[in-house]
Amino acid sequence: MDQINLGDKEINSVTKLIKLGKYHEALQELKLLNKKFNHFLINWYLGHVYFKLHNYSEAENYIKKSINLKSEDTLNLNFLGEIYLEKNQYTNAIAAFEKSLKIDRENKPTILNLIKSNLNIGNIDECEKYLNFLLKKDPMNFSYHYSLIKINEKYLTKNLINEVQNSSDKLDFNNKIYSNLILAKINEIEKNYSNEIKHLNIAHEIYRAKIEKAFIQQYTYLTEILPKLVNQCKNFEFTTNSKLHPIFIMGLPRSGTSLVERIITSGGNKIQSLGESDVFDKVIFANQIHNITETDNIKNFTEKVLAQYVQQGYLEENIKFTDKSISNFLQIEILYKIFPNAKFVYCYRNPTANLVGLLRSFLPNVFWSHSLKNVCVIFDQYFKKLSKITNEKLIDLHVVELEKLSNNSEIVSKELFKYLELEWTPECIKTDNKNVISKTASNLQVRKPIQKHDLSYTADYIKIFKQMGLDYEWLI
Predict the structure, then answer these.
(1) Is the pLDDT at 136 greater than 80, yes or no?
(2) CB–CB of 342/245 below 8 Å?
(3) Could you tell me the CA-to-CA distances from 324 to 258, 264, 346, 413 in Å, in that order?
(4) What ranges do the domains of the chain cover?
(5) What global pTM score does this model have?
C-alpha cells in the first residue's frame, strides 16, 4: 500500500461528506482509500467517522493506528481520551489527557478535558486547580469564573461582581453567555427572581442562535420522529432479551434521576451504572432508522442495542445495570418490549422547580433546553405521557417524587428497593459515596448530602412565568 501519495482530492471529498453529516457515505469512501493508502490521515478520519457513528471500539482502533503511523500529539491524544470517556474508561482517558499535557503544558483543550473528567469522577480539587490555572492565562474569561462558582460560591467575589456588572456590550460570544449566567446567579442569591429569569433567558437565546441547526434536529427528533417510531412499534415484534434486568431511570433533566441512580447503585447489590448512555438514540441514528416498517433497518435491533451498551462500557457479566438517558421515557414502549424483565423508575419533581432548575443548569448538549418555549412543550409531552401510562397501567412504572425522597429518604428509598426487588441497606442513602461517576450537570450535587426541598420560592416563579405568557396546567 502507498504510504505517501494521498492526494488532496481524495481527502477533500471525505471532509466534505463529514461536514454535511453524511458519515455512512464518508465511511465507505474511507474504507476504499484505506485499501490503497496506509496513511495516518485516513486512519484519523476513520476514527472520527466511527466516533460519530458511536462505534467507539473501532474509533479507538483507528486513532491508535493513526498515532503509530504519525506520532503522539495533543490533537490525537485528546481525541483518544474523549473516546475513552465515551467508553466510561476514566483511568485511560485521564492518562491520555495527562500525556497530552506533558507535550504542551498550556494546551487548553487538554486542560478542559481534564477538568471535565475529574469533575465526573468527583476530583473537585483537581478541577479547581486547572480552572485557576486557566484564569491566570485568561483572567477575563467568565466561563472559568462561572465553573468555579458552581463548585463553590466563594468564587463569586465582589471584584468579579463589579467586573461582570460593568462589562461592556462588546464582549465576545462566550463571555456574553457566561456574564449573563453570573448575573442570573447574583440575582438568584438576592432573590430578584424576575431579573434572574431575564438574564437566564438572554444566555440561552445567545447560545441557541449558535446551535440552531442542532437545536431543530434534536427538538424534531423528540417531538415528531421518536413519537412516530414509538407509535409504529405497537404492531412490531422485537426480539426480546429476558436474561438482562436493566433499571431504566426516567424523568426530565434536573428531576432527581442522578440522585436516584446514586441510591440504587450505592447499596450492596452489584449494579453497574451506565448513566445517560443514549443507547437507543444512538442505534436509531447510526442505523438510519426513520421508520419501523423499514424491516432492513430494524432487523436485529435488540442485538444492536446490546452491542451499543458494550461499546459504552457495559460489562456483560452484569445482569442488572442502570440507564438514565433523557429520551428513554418517550420510548418506554420499545424498552418494555425488548426487556420484559426491566424495571422502570420515573423521577417526578415539582414542575415549576424542575423548570427553574433546568434553566439554571445551562446544559450545552441538551439543545432543546435553550428555549423556554420549547422546554415547556417537552415538559407538556412528558407530563401527558406520564398521565397516560399511570392511568392505563399497561407498564409497571414506579414514580419517585424528588420532594418526598429528599424529606423522607429512608422511607421512599425502601419503597423503591422493594419495587426493584433489591436489598436495602443504610449504605444506599449515605452521603459520602466517593465512587459515584456522573457525567451530568448533577455531578456536584450527587455527592452532597440529600437536601430537603422547600418549595415556597416557586410561587414567585409561577407569577413570572404567567406574566411571560406560559399557560400550562402543570405550572404549579
Answers:
(1) yes
(2) yes
(3) 8, 12, 10, 17
(4) 140-210, 213-467
(5) 0.91
Query: For residue 371, how many other CB atoms are within 10 A of its CB?
Result: 18
Q: Is 404 exposed, middle or buried (0-12, 13-18, 19+ CB in 10 A)?
A: middle
**Residue whose grid cell is 450545552:** 364
> 467: part of which helix (H) or strand (E)?
helix 458-467
pLDDT reported for residue 212: 96
Largest interatomic CA distance in the chain: 70
User: How far apart (Å, rounded) are the C-alpha atoms in residues 67 and 55?
Assistant: 19
The secondary structure of the chain in percent helix, strand, coil, rounded to multiples of 5, reads: 65, 5, 30
pLDDT digits (tens, 9 = 90+) for 369-387: 999 999 999 999 999 999 9
**Amino acid letter for position 429:** I
Closest CA to 341 of 247, 213, 253, 455: 247
The Cα 287–Cα 285 span in angstroms is: 5
Q: Binning pLDDT at 50, 70 and 90, where does residue 1 land?
A: very low
For the domain bounded by 213-467, which CATH number is listed?
A: 3.40.50.300
Does residue 188 contact residue 459 with C-beta atoms inside 8 Å?
Answer: no
Query: Do residues 429 and 446 make contact, with C-beta atoms less than 8 angstroms apart?
Result: no
Please give the angle made by the CA atoms of 413, 416 and 420, to the nearest 5 degrees: 135
